[in-house]
Specification:
The complex is a heterodimer of chains A (411) and B (273).
Chain A (H helix, E strand, L loop, with lengths): L18 H14 L6 H17 L6 H26 L7 H18 L4 H26 L3 H20 L5 E2 L5 H7 L5 H28 L7 H23 L6 H19 L1 H11 L1 H6 L4 H27 L1 E2 L8 H11 L12 H19 L4 H29 L3
Antiparallel strand pairs in A: 1-2
Helix pairs in contact in A: 2-15, 3-10, 3-13, 3-14, 3-15, 4-5, 4-6, 4-13, 5-6, 5-13, 7-13, 8-9, 10-11, 11-13, 14-15, 14-16, 15-16
Chain B lengths: L1 H10 L5 E12 L2 E12 L2 E6 L6 H9 L6 E6 L2 E3 L4 H7 L1 E4 L11 H5 L6 E2 L2 E2 L1 H14 L16 H14 L4 E5 L7 H16 L3 E5 L3 H7 L2 E6 L2 E7 L5 H9 L5 H8 L8
Parallel strand pairs in B: 3-10, 3-11, 6-9, 9-10
Antiparallel strand pairs in B: 1-2, 1-4, 4-5, 7-8, 11-12
Classes of the chains: A mainly alpha (411), B alpha/beta (273).
Chain lengths: 411, 273
């Protein structure tokens, strides 16, 4: 070897493969070791899509997929918050009620009281933050399990939602208001969707490239140029293909795009900031995090606040799409769909493992099942049972991969 | 403490006293866990604290680590009085403790564990490249055998985990490192690895406090051995001058041994049994 070996690869025991083929081999060994990442959910999604496409050729039509993305945004946003609490090894069962409360505040404030929209939106989100603050304080001051606190919250905030709605029960939001237009009618123009994709892919490529240069200068192993090109090329192909297909009909919904932005932003905070590192540390070993000087209570409170705020945003999205808030907003399967999405997407129930992207993948699976069963005219009774079965499968995969991780030494 | 000053001067090296405890007492309810204990640590020295179960080793360490404060007595750090009332106080003074359970996050990789709570930040984002580079520098300085710093800590052996925990304690540039039973659960080769690491800490000029049950390990690596028995000082030996029989006698409190003979020379300070 003519070039010096990077500092991080000098140990002779290290099994290493360079380049893209090496990355592929590492990937196979990671999967065998139980570090499944998003593989099961992507495979699952392909299987689900294939099955429904065979049963009804309209399933993968552009029209239906546009509808699918619009259905994903509200519950998907709630699922981002669930990912956060699951990373801590906690749970929030009240997200459905909190999203319903937020819908109610939006409708009552905007329609009945005639307040300006930005103010009402702010009030909804602040209500979410306050709910989370209460949960966080109860969790940290009294050490009550979050399961119980948020179960109480589920009932309590459902009551508050009904109280806010008052006697009317159901409030319709005017169809020509900005919020309903946003939820139902606003789509990115085709050129803009492509422009956004190009900008996103270029900045991702630039980030990978800059990191590779820094690592090489620091004497560490770095991603090869070809690898960077393959990665960004794949990303570009997937995103452009998806956008092109959606653009055949109505296109990319602004609400769905905003959901994706929230996911990317949350992923940045989780992986690139001290706060995010602390969240993973607390989820992995609370005592170790405490001794390392992390203010564990602040992490708990901030995560519960964010989770409830995401639930509130999800409630706003739901009300915008439905053009109404009623006593059933955030009820039914909203709660469990959000939790199921996070788990199906690959975030572990045991804490410390998962990523913001699992909200996207998980909600795509859940909504594909819902949409597919609707399109082949199956009753909601079957839908509940199938969704329940998929959730169960995801939890079993999580538990099994945790076991094989332990055996393969991947934590 | 004439014994210690004598011991230090005979070593002929100029040594700075880092930590000095005088007359430390601690009660838990009706139990007097520590009674009038004196203890010193010098720079570039490995001091072992040995003693039977219930001798007060852990209590002494917890006072130094800020887990609970002492009831009586004084702690001086570089000659000035210090109060250690919380783990943060201890850390700010420069006392790093590696507890027996290591307190590592299994789901995070070696770099994240090393820098946990002290992450380097550049422009608001974590500076992973810098942290990884410095981690390698630190691990190489300690001659630590960690194959990759990007694997989760769960995949490391017991000795490697101990190494990570010890390396982590050095990130904050402490002056004293406390190791609680670092070799307790390790195999022969791994124990040797950790003992090498302890020598490396001494070479860096740190004061190392080693708590151990294993007399062989203590004799292999310590410069000085402080024996506690039933919450009191029961001897302070230079390793070069002492046999393991004498240490064991001091630990168990056998009546006729070098400790009691020495104690007779200093009746005002010696053990009272």
């Amino acid at each position: 070897m003519s070039t010096p070996i990077p500092v991080d690869q000098q140990d002779e025991r290290l099994i290493q493969h360079g380049g893209i083929s090496g990355w592929a081999r590492d990937f196979v060994s990671r999967v065998r070791g139980g570090d499944l990442g998003s593989l099961p959910v992507i495979v699952g999604l392909i299987v689900i899509w294939a099955i429904f496409q065979i049963m009804n050729p309209n399933f993968l039509s552009s029209t239906n997929l546009v509808n699918l993305t619009m259905q994903c945004a509200a519950v998907g946003t709630i699922a981002i918050g669930i990912v956060l609490v699951l990373l801590l090894g906690e749970i929030d069962l009240s997200v459905g009620s909190v999203s319903g409360l937020s819908s109610a505040i939006l409708a009552v404030g905007f329609v009945q009281l005639g307040l300006p929209l930005p103010l009402v939106l702010l009030a909804s989100i602040v209500a979410g933050l306050l709910v989370g603050l209460v949960f966080g304080l109860l969790r940290t001051l009294f050490g009550v399990p979050s399961f119980v606190i948020t179960l109480a919250g589920l009932l309590g905030f459902l009551g508050l939602q009904l109280f806010v709605l008052g006697k009317t029960g159901s409030i319709n939001i005017p169809f020509d208001s900005a919020i309903v237009q946003f939820g139902q009618q606003w789509f990115l123009p085709a050129w803009l969707s492509y422009a956004v994709i190009v900008i996103v892919v270029l900045s991702y490529a630039w980030q990978l490239f800059a990191q590779a240069v820094r690592r090489t200068t620091a004497g560490l192993s770095a991603m090869s140029g070809a690898h960077v090109i393959v990665r960004t090329g794949t990303l570009l192909a997937v995103l452009a293909l998806a956008a092109w297909y959606l653009n055949l009909t109505r296109g990319v919904s602004v609400m769905f795009a905003l959901f994706l932005v929230l996911v990317v932003v949350m992923n940045y905070f989780l992986t690139r900031t001290k706060w995010g590192r602390s969240v993973y540390a607390v989820g992995g070993n609370v005592e170790a995090a405490r001794r390392a000087g992390i203010r564990v209570n602040r992490i708990y409170i901030s995560v519960f606040m964010l989770c409830s705020a995401f639930a509130a945003v999800g409630g706003i999205f739901a009300a915008a799409r439905l053009a109404a808030a009623n006593q059933g907003s955030g009820g039914g399967d909203t709660n469990l769909n959000a939790i199921a999405a996070a788990v199906i997407g690959g975030t572990s129930l045991f804490g410390g493992r998962g990523s913001a992207y699992s909200a996207v993948l998980g909600i795509l699976v859940i909504m594909s099942i819902t949409s597919g069963l609707n399109i082949i005219n199956l009753d909601s009774s079957i839908r509940y049972m199938v969704t329940g079965g998929v959730l169960l499968l995801a939890v079993v995969v999580d538990a099994l991969s945790r076991r094989s991780r332990a055996a393969a030494g991947r934590g | 403490m004439t014994m210690i000053s004598a011991a230090t001067s005979t070593r002929g090296r100029a040594r700075e006293q880092i930590l000095s405890l005088r007359g430390i007492g601690k009660r838990f309810g009706a139990v007097r866990a520590l009674n009038d204990v004196d203890f010193d640590v010098y720079a570039g020295e490995v001091v072992a604290i040995v003693g039977d179960n219930g001798a007060g080793k852990s209590t002494l360490v917890k006072i130094l680590a800020g887990v609970h404060p002492q009831d009586s007595g004084t702690v001086s750090f570089y000659g000035s009085r210090a109060s250690i009332s919380s783990p943060t106080d201890a850390r700010d003074l420069g006392i790093a403790t590696v507890f027996q359970d290591l307190a590592l996050c299994d789901n995070l990789d070696v770099v994240s564990n090393l820098w946990l709570g002290r992450e380097l930040v550049k422009g608001g984002a974590l500076d992973d490249v810098e942290m990884e580079q410095r981690s390698w520098a630190l691990l190489r300085e300690l001659s630590a055998k960690i194959p990759s710093v990007r694997t989760p800590v769960a995949s490391l052996s017991g000795g490697q985990r101990q190494t990570v925990a010890i390396a982590r304690s050095l990130i904050g540039e402490p002056s004293v490192v406390i190791l609680d039973e670092p070799t307790a659960a390790l195999g022969v080769a791994q124990t040797a690895e950790v003992l090498n690491l302890i020598e490396r800490l001494r070479e860096r000029g740190l004061g190392v406090i080693l708590i151990s049950h294993n007399i062989a390990d203590v004799q292999a690596v310590a410069d000085r051995i402080v024996v506690l028995r039933l919450g009191r000082n029961n001897g302070d030996f230079r390793v070069a001058d002492v046999t393991s029989e004498a240490i064991i006698a001091a630990i168990t409190g056998a009546s006729d041994n070098s400790v009691t003979r020495r104690a007779a020379l200093h009746p005002e300070k010696g053990p009272t049994e």
